[in-house]
# Entry
Amino acid sequence: MTTEQGMEFGFGTQIRKSPYFDATVRWGARDFSVYNHMYIPRDFGDPEQNFWNLVNDAILCDVAVERQVQITGPDAAQFVQLLTPRDLSSLAVGQCKYVLITNAEGGILNDPVLLRLAEDKFWLSLADSDILLWAQGVAVHAGLDVHICEPDVSPLQLQGPRSGEIARALFGEDIADLRYYWLREYHVVGIPVVVSRTGWSSELGYEIYLLDGSRGGELWEAIMAAGQPFGLKPGHTSTIRRIEGGMLSYHADMDNQTNPFELGLDRLVALDSDAEFVGKAALKRIRDNGVTRRQVGLVIDGPPLAGPNTRFWALSVGGATVGKVTSAVYSPRLEKNIALAMVAVEHAALDTELEVAMPDGQRLARVVQKPFYDPKKKITAAALTAASGSDGV
# Structure
């Protein structure tokens, strides 16, 4: 296809387009990648400007690639617990939780947000892996009465400090008391949506789940129109901001060979509960034996990185490889090269110096505390209101 600006994109029928695809092209999307077998916009111009748009005002992102696995039926709650090591016994209707999906060896298959829409209705809002097939496979021998499918649901992310003002313009004043990691149902220009106070940005924000894929362009335009007085810009998920916030990217910072304890996500593994879940025995062994590597934050010396890393960079001490950089970027706000890395536990202590094998040669790096910015997550948890009650993150 050729855009009005004369740019050409080549697309095939084997990869799906999102309901917002044409709208994002109209609004300046310049490049796409593939995630969950769907195209996702990755470029609306300067990625540093996209970062500043996010942290100063607000951006709207097409994240329809976060496909939903819908689980319904009389045994839906029991089945969802079977998929994740996180204790879901207190999960209320209308609440969301960040969860891990683990395999029989304790490896991480996905790290979705779980939404509970009704007593017997759940969505898993996915990172990039085929959890629909995994869940259907687990269900075959689970002996539980559930139905598992991919519904016609496509999320957008409205993120940034002014997203609360835009949300009030779209949904009304009552959106102001929507708690962190909770959801509600709304309509925008007659279009049914589910709105959760979640997002992949480490900023105040919302995810808006379209329930009618035929109206994607209409919804996009309605949100952009409501957001214009507040500086809303079209954008894409910010690698800079997510690394600043220590947010994980599946296939980069973890995969099915990574376990929760290596990532410091022990709180998401309820080994002492009565809940049964896939991988429980393996995760008990890993906890009892200890891990051999850990995720750390790094500051990398030298001039600003030209962009995010596109491959893993080896880390070494005295010529011996001890780990790898998984995600790296230059932060213009911190004026540092920052990175997430997986390293052997004996080299994971703060202030440990490591050598990084980069395309332009060796550089020195130092282990530092993560997240790199807003370590207590005050922005996402406290912005907009001082709402009381538990969050679900």
